[in-house]
Amino acid sequence: MKTMTKLEHLEQVAELLNTHDNFAILTHRFPDGDTLGSAYALCGMLQQKGKKAKVLFNGQLLPEYHFLDNSVEHSDFQAETFVSVDVAEEKLLGELAQYKDNILVAIDHHETHRPFAEYYYVEPDSASAGEIIFALAKVMNIDFTKAISNAIYTAVSTDTGCFRYSSVTVKTHLIAAELIQYGCENYKIDKAMFDTVPKNKKQLEAYILTNMEYYHNDEIALIYLSQKTLATFGFTNETVGSTSYITRTIMGVKVGITVRELDQTTFKISVRTNDGVSASKICNQFHGGGHDAAAGCTIHASDISTAKQQLLTVVETYL
Ligand SMILES: [Mn+2]
User: At 4, is the secondary structure helix, strand, or coil?
Assistant: First the structure.
């Protein structure tokens, strides 16, 4: 059993990075703007300090994130030091699980973080991992280039639903303001992340709204997306990106649930909540986790109706 040490100060993280080289930065499965923005920012920061660094992600990069990959230098080298960003627990490493025993430091903002790395630094008060990377950049005396500022801004903006979630603080806005001062392309990034949707994704959104199931006096909204349904719109679980934001936008809904079929007996659950219902407590019941208003878990059940019933039974105890 390896020992895992909690780090209390970003200076300790900076020191670990400073005394190592040949970095691979690991992101979580179904990578989002926070894990990718944080990873590419950190990659650029390490390269600026004369280190070799690259980002490893699960599956393929969605088109809206290509600009991040284009913002760092690519070179071929054998990775020696593994760092994870925004990864709340080992199983979320997905395809990168092969590196799980070699991770030097995990940088994360999930209150439900389950330690897996040799060292871990967790700031649950940060609305995104990007906020931590911003602070780390300050400690490392980084020159905030446009590329680094764009990557951190992407993380900060996407993990707060464009500064709309309850997790947003004064610090979130101050960081965004400073990044804009450094020349980040906030308008372009927000437009690409929030205001531009491919035609087939818009059609999938329409399907979701039409087929949403409501329970418990309309306080629970649930949508099930089978692989077959996703395929109808030209998507797979890897390419569809996020859809769970839709459930929470319906007036009166306290718990929005998106169920995705991973295989016949494995279902990926995303929970989004309003009105103080804790998404992470709900998902904890299924050994998952996340934040107060956004969390996830995986359910194994013989079929979808059994999975739904298990979920609804637990959710109703929180209403
Ligand atoms: Mn995050």
Answer: coil
Structure tokens at 106: 């995990």
C-alpha 164 to ligand 1 mean position (Å): 15
The string of pLDDT tens digits covering residues 12-66 is: 999 999 999 999 999 999 999 999 999 999 999 999 999 999 999 998 899 899 9
Sign of the alpha-carbon dihedral angle for 142, 145, 147, 151:
positive
Task: Report how far ligand 1's centroid is from the alpha carbon of 235 (Å).
Answer: 23
**Sequential DSSP letters for 87-110:** --SGGGGGGGGGGGGGEEEEEE--
User: Distance from the CA of 109 to the center of ligand 1, in angstroms?
Assistant: 7
Nearest alpha carbon to residue 178 among 209, 207, 208, 148: 148
183 in Cβ contact with 152 (< 8 Å): no
As a dihedral over the C-alpha atoms of residue 144, residue 17, residue 123, residue 30, rounded to 10 degrees, the angle is: 80
What structural domains does the chain harbor? 5-194 (3.90.1640.10), 199-316 (3.10.310.30)
The DSSP 8-state label assigned to residue 65 in this structure reads G
Which residues are near ligand 1, the ion (C-beta closer than 5 Å)? 34, 86, 129, 159
